[in-house]
């Protein structure tokens, strides 16, 4: 981290007591922002799009429809930013079988889903606070890479950010020393209750502050992105957790990190906020279009099957495959509470209608089936 790179920074460079290095201590998030015409327009467009997405979410016929595959998609993409490689289709397939993959990368994604689901349940009755953030972190790192990096606890050693193998002296950025963490984390918690700044701008500034503080030894990026969804749901901007920015951040990863760093180095809040708002605008539109496509597809399927009298159980499978587009005969028999042969006949009827396609499998009684149209809408 070069001191010469920090011109008009949004914080202070502080020398460690050892005198061996300097770290960056961020200022409290600003309570006022100069909003130029471009930023004002972007904020209005992002607010409109997220409002439309929330409206679609409020009309979903079943709270589980769309949500689970969206959670899984977000978990995969958020983890991918950190270098985790996992297949969304494989994860959905394992979920349909009621199993978890033993692969490390997929286990990390499962933990992300568990943490997000836990957080969504907790914010129904509780505020976002230190205890919740630490518990989310504990869930995220349990039994996976990072399990030895004090899950659920703020770090007590110095870290630095740069390419793998980079020394502290060659690092791009050195976040606050452990002894200095409490102040910026309290600033973060205070800012959550701020009510006098446009909400999406507030969310952008919260995300910058959390990532810059870097309170944990591992998992900071994933927790920071997870908190975006929880905060917007808690404040009532989202009726359902259908906005996920990880697809946007992953697609623009270099710019994502660059904009965050430029706030610290140059105090350039405006460029970061505009980048963030473009993501909200883009992903809200994307989420709305996917949700509407899925709702229309579900209605078409139900209308088609309403005329079919031979297999009345088939219509019951429809909502199930909109929770997860993969299904097995065993899974169908358990869901419908019928025998294996009856479930097999039901699956076969859906195959004849073109609603299910057999997936590759080497185990006869563990055959999987999937709906290709749902997978296409989800971008798989």
Describe the fold and architecture.
By secondary structure, the protein is mainly alpha-helical. It folds into two domains: 288 residues, Fic-like fold; 70 residues, Winged helix-like DNA-binding domain superfamily/Winged helix DNA-binding domain (Arc Repressor Mutant, subunit A). Strands 3-5-4 form a three-stranded antiparallel beta sheet. Helix 1 runs parallel beside helix 11 and helix 7 crosses helix 11. The longest helix has 38 residues.
Number of helices: 15
The count of domains is 2
N→C terminal distance: 39 Å
Helix content: 55-70%
Which strand order does the major sheet show? 3-5-4
Detail the topology: elements first, then pairings.
Layout: E1 11-15, E2 22-26, H1 37-58, H2 67-81, H3 88-96, H4 104-122, H5 130-141, H6 182-192, H7 199-213, H8 220-234, H9 246-251, H10 253-266, H11 269-306, H12 314-323, E3 326-328, H13 329-336, H14 340-352, E4 357-358, E5 368-370, H15 372-378
Antiparallel strand pairs: 1-2, 3-5, 4-5
Helix pairs in contact: 1-11, 2-4, 4-5, 4-8, 6-7, 7-8, 7-11, 10-11, 11-12, 11-15, 13-14
């Amino acid at each position: 981290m070069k001191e010469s790179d920090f011109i008009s920074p949004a914080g202070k460079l502080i020398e460690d007591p050892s005198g061996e290095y300097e770290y960056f201590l961020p200022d409290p998030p600003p309570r006022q922002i100069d909003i130029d015409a471009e930023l004002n327009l972007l904020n209005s467009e992002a607010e409109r799009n997220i409002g439309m997405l929330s409206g679609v979410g409020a009309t979903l016929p079943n709270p589980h429809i769309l949500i689970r595959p969206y959670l899984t998609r977000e978990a995969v993409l958020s983890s991918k930013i950190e270098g985790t490689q996992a297949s969304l289709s494989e994860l959905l397939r394992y979920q349909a079988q009621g199993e978890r993959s033993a692969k490390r990368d997929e286990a990390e994604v499962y933990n992300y889903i568990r943490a997000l689901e836990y957080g969504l349940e907790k914010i129904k009755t509780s505020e976002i606070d230190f205890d919740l953030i630490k518990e989310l972190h504990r869930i995220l790192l349990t039994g996976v890479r990072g399990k030895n990096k004090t899950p659920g606890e703020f770090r007590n050693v110095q870290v630095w950010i740069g390419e793998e193998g980079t020394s502290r002296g060659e690092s791009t950025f050195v976040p606050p020393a452990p002894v200095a963490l409490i102040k910026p984390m309290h600033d973060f918690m205070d800012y959550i209750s701020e009510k006098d700044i446009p909400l999406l701008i507030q969310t952008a500034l919260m995300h910058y502050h959390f990532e810059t503080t870097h309170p944990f030894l591992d998992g900071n990026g994933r927790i920071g992105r997870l908190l975006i969804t929880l905060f917007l749901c808690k404040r009532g901007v989202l009726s359902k957790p259908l906005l996920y920015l990880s697809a946007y951040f992953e697609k623009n990863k270099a710019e994502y990190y660059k904009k965050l760093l430029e706030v610290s180095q140059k105090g350039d809040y405006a460029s970061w906020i505009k980048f963030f708002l473009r993501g909200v605008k883009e992903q809200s539109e994307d989420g709305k279009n996917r949700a509407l496509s899925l709702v229309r597809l579900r209605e078409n399927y139900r209308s088609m099957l309403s005329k079919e009298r031979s297999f009345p159980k088939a219509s019951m499978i429809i909502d199930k495959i909109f929770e997860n587009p993969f299904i097995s005969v065993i899974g169908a028999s358990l869901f419908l509470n019928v025998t294996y042969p009856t479930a097999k006949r039901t699956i076969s009827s859906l195959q004849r209608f073109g609603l299910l396609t057999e997936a590759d499998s080497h185990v006869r009684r563990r055959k999987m089936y999937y709906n290709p149209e749902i997978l296409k809408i989800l971008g798989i």
